[in-house]
Amino acid sequence: MGALSIRNVRKSFGDIHILKGIDIEIDEGEFLILVGPSGCGKSTLLNMIAGLDAPSAGSIHIGDRDVTYALPKDRDIAMVFQSYALYPNMNVAQNISFALEMRKVPKAERDAAVARVAKMLQIEHLLDRKPGALSGGQRQRVAMGRALARDPMLFLFDEPLSNLDAKLRVEMRAEIKLLHQRTRRTTVYVTHDQVEAMTLGDRIAVMKAGELQQFGTPDDIYSRPATKFVAEFIGSPSMNMLPARFVDAGLHANGTPLPLDGARLPQLRGNTQREWTYGLRPEAVSFSDQGLPGSIAMIEPTGPETYAKVETAAGLLVARVPGKLAGKVGDPVRLAWQADQAHLFDSSTDKRLTEDSPA
Asked: What pLDDT digit, counting tens, does each position of 214-272 carry?
């Protein structure tokens, strides 16, 4: 009933194309993340799902209903915005129940819904307070409670944690995930934060400039990025990228040989004039007695792990190592990694070269 289908959705303002044919299908109960940089079109797409804007082309289905041009009130959705949008003159209980009251829900049912979501969100002791007496995290819980009280077919979240501090963001992220596990309602969540995307989503849609770059599970997105953009956007620190060429039956960056899975070499031999980008996740790079020589340019300790930037003949590489790094800036080191841990992207198209890509 709560599945979501977005079919070739486009949005244009004259010659300006905001969305360029978005296709997304998720099953009932799934948690979908729309992620991408500012201006990529993710909030525009969410507004179309909500009925706050209409597509220029394409269709949107919720369950078995075509809601492309249906009014928001007829879509059976609930939305949580970046701003809490609470009524300052109402207390928490009244804010949570207001939408139900507007729908003529009997008072007994409204009171039961308020009690249910207040217990779920652990805000029972706040029901008599007004928004001005609440912290940011408490206000966000009330905003979520207002959505939960509706018990809709579809939950929509538009960057709901952007106004919170770092510690509270982590706590609220866990709360949202727990709520989804309890309610199992289909959810669409917009964010520009790739950590939120990876930790919350069952599936992720990575967007750039109105186009869908990749749609898949968090593991698909992280382990098999479809494009250079996805590889750099998802993951912190970002994936190492080295410009490379296929020369003398091998791949080289600035004259330095680069190891590559043998299954991909036959594909490269027929494309010796093409520019490539050689990608490595920082956790794939380790310090070794043998390997690519370089010198430490920067050390960034984070507590449980350390990021080390190393200058090499091939280019700057970031290594993520557990714990504390036994070294200092300027020390000579050697870096090593497994050939099958590298990702290769065609520099002209930014698409990832896979084992089954055509030569």
From this structure: 999 999 999 999 999 999 999 989 999 999 988 877 889 998 999 888 766 666 766 66
State how far the Cα of 181 lies from the Cα of 195, in Å rounded to an integer. Answer: 19
Q: Is the pTM of this model over 0.70?
A: yes
Closest residue by Cα to residue 277 from 235, 231, 320, 208: 231
- Domain regions of the chain by residue span: 4-232, 238-346
pLDDT value of position 48: 96
In CATH, which superfamily holds the domain spanning 238-346? Answer: Nucleic acid-binding proteins (2.40.50.140)
- Residue for token digits 């819904």? 113
Task: Extract the tokens encoding 303.
Answer: 């507590």
Give CB contacts under 8 A, 24+ apart, made by 55-59.
55/9, 55/10, 55/11, 55/19, 56/10, 56/11, 56/12, 57/8, 57/9, 57/10, 58/6, 58/7, 58/8, 58/9, 58/10, 58/21, 58/22, 59/5, 59/7, 59/8, 59/9
pLDDT of amino acid 60: 96
* Contacts (Cβ under 8 Å, ≥6 apart) of 329: 296, 297, 298, 299
4-232 is classed CATH 3.40.50.300: yes
- Mean pLDDT (the chain) is 90
Residue in this structure with the two tokens 């449980």, named with its chain if needed: 304
Identical fold, 4-232 and 238-346: no
Return the SS3 of 353. coil
- Could you give the CA distance from residue 132 to residue 11 in angstroms, rounded to a whole number? 38
The one-letter amino acid at 61: H
Structure confidence by residue, pLDDT tens digits, 41-52: 999 999 999 999
For 275-292, how does the pLDDT look when each residue is reduced to its tens digit (9 = 90+)? 899 999 999 999 999 899
In angstroms, the CA 305 to CA 203 distance is 28
